[in-house]
Write a structure and sequence with these properties.
- GO terms for molecular function: transmembrane signaling receptor activity.
- It comes from Sinocyclocheilus grahami.
- One of its GO terms (cellular component) is plasma membrane.
- By secondary structure, the chain is an all-beta fold.
- The chain has two domains: 99 residues, Sandwich (Immunoglobulin-like); 92 residues, Sandwich (Immunoglobulin-like), CATH 2.60.40.
- The protein is built from one helix and 22 strands.
- The longest helix has 4 residues.
Length: 237
């Protein structure tokens, strides 16, 4: 049927030096109000983020306690490394999910990337995402975060129609028949690599109604981000 189960966390992401990347982490609802944080793996131990350990300009941690996903945005990344999205569990071991950030310098082609990790569409409309990749073109999958993956040229995810057009270096994913409940995190996947993409489905505007579709969103540097219940940022000089 062209479906498989998706991962619940990112394990390997490719990004160009100096750019930003967003990493989502799905957690159980019982941890909705627990402390979330990011740590880095150094010398066989977990190290709290600092100017020396992060190798990036800033880290923005946002927690969607209703959707049970917290995201980590790392800006101006400089070096590859292992990081851990974590949830603090008092009187027990913290919950951790590790990922490797593969930072590429110069004009070298990234192993997997997209034009934007934030895509907006309208109800009953469609969105198109271009996944640029190296390696086998037919190894590209399109997955719902914590849900299912489309592994063939067409399929359905939660009622939305998905079409995948495979190319040598560029695989295009189109999702149509969108509904508000299709808002959420998805990703392109090539074997071990993943690139998360957040899709926001807005209510279709009528000609008479004022333009208020983005009134509850946060815009920064020309990009649109979803609001979150909790948000905190770490900046490094």
């Amino acid at each position: 049927v062209g479906l498989s189960l998706s991962r619940e966390s990112v394990t390997l992401v490719s990004v160009r030096r100096g750019q930003s990347v967003i990493i989502p982490y799905l957690y159980h609802q019982k941890y909705a109000f627990s402390c979330k944080y990011l740590s880095v793996w150094q010398s066989s131990d977990y190290v709290a983020l600092s100017d020396q350990s992060c190798h990036c300009k800033s880290v923005l941690i946002s927690d969607d306690t209703k959707g049970h996903i917290f995201t980590v945005r790392m800006d101006n990344v400089q070096e590859s490394g292992y990081y851990w999205c974590a949830i603090h569990i008092p009187s027990a071991f913290d919950k951790r999910a590790g990922f490797f950030l593969d930072v590429t310098a110069g004009e070298t082609i990234l192993q997997l990337h997209v034009n934007s990790q934030n895509v907006t569409g309208s109800e009953n409309g469609s969105v198109t995402i271009s996944c640029y990749h190296r390696g086998r073109q037919y190894g590209v999958k399109w997955c719902k975060f914590g849900g299912q993956c489309i592994t063939r040229a067409s399929g359905r995810l939660d009622g939305a129609s998905v079409e995948i057009r495979y190319g040598l270096r560029n695989t295009t994913v189109s999702m149509s028949r969108l509904k508000k409940e299709h808002t959420g995190w998805y990703w392109c996947s090539t074997e071990e690599l993943q690139m998360p993409v957040h899709i926001t489905v807005q209510q279709k505007k009528s000609r008479e109604s004022p333009d208020t579709a983005e009134s509850d969103q946060i815009s920064a540097s020309g990009k649109t981000f979803q609001p979150f219940d909790q948000k905190y940022i770490l900046k490094f000089n």
